[in-house]
Amino acid sequence: MDIEVLGELAVYENGVSVVPSAGKPRQILALLSLWAGRVVPVPTLMEELWGDAVPRSAATTLQTYILQLRRRMAAALRDAPDSPARTPKDVLATAFGGYRVAVTPESCDWSQFRRLAVQGRDALTAGDARSASAHLTRALALWRGPALVDVPVGRVLGLETLYMEETRMQALEERIEADLRLGYHASLLGELRTLVARHPLHENLCAQLMTALCRSGSPWRALQEFRQLRERLRRELGVEPSPRLQRLHQAVLSGAPELDGGETFVQARSA
């Protein structure tokens, strides 16, 4: 089984889609897919489908949705007579207290993303910016849009997708940091300007844009970005920029050598 959740939901058994069109079965399949290989407890599935308004018929209705999913899997299994004998209950298994999709986590693009993101983060921590950039670029390339963009989202999936998007943003910031260390300041400017426009209160993205601008020979534009962020923070939140960003602002004003970036760029190009 191949599972994709980093964008539209796509689940294939033997190359045949088993994603239902109805909303609630789609939610169940999405949640089971995110927990690939692990048991999703029945109360968790009910909370996702109905929140606090669980009907009396919930247990029977949930079993009906599971049956509908297994029927789709049965059709996909019939289309592959040469594959090892498997039944729908082998694929969508009943476990003590819940259900699970009986696949390895690596069958899901979300698990692949997390593995690559961790490898990239570890490489960045170890000072290997080139490996970090490569791993994180591969991880981010798995995303085809917002997580589960075509699935109705209840309480449980809402928290899951929020965590997924935050993890994606962290990986993106780390990939940009790796590229800054490699000296790709000028080529990052367009991407960073777009990201800052989309996330106007995000201090780390602003700091990365300021750094890229300084290393590209435009410190005055970096100061302008700081002023604009400070005005937005004061107006919308009533706070000042963080001490870290204020230290960066002072470094730009003083022309700190670490913001020059010339030596880093030469090393990156000659490596």
From TrEMBL:
PROSITE patterns: OMPR_PHOB (PS51755). GO terms for biological process: phosphorelay signal transduction system; regulation of DNA-templated transcription. The keyword Signal does not apply. Gene3D superfamilies: Tetratricopeptide repeat domain, Winged helix-like DNA-binding domain superfamily/Winged helix DNA-binding domain. Residues 1-103 form the OmpR/PhoB-type domain. SUPFAM superfamilies: C-terminal effector domain of the bipartite response regulators, TPR-like. The keyword Transcription applies. CDD domains: BTAD. Keywords: DNA-binding, Transcription, Transcription regulation, Two-component regulatory system. One of its GO terms (molecular function) is DNA binding. SMART domains: BTAD (SM01043), Trans_reg_C (SM00862). InterPro entries: AfsR-DnrI-RedD_regulator (IPR051677), BTAD (IPR005158), OmpR/PhoB-type_DNA-bd (IPR001867), Sig_transdc_resp-reg_C-effctor (IPR016032), TPR-like_helical_dom_sf (IPR011990), WH-like_DNA-bd_sf (IPR036388). Residues 1-103 bind DNA. Transmembrane segments: none annotated. PANTHER family: TRANSCRIPTIONAL REGULATOR REDD, TRANSCRIPTIONAL REGULATOR REDD-RELATED. Belongs to the AfsR/DnrI/RedD regulatory family. This is OmpR/PhoB-type domain-containing protein. It comes from Streptomyces albireticuli.
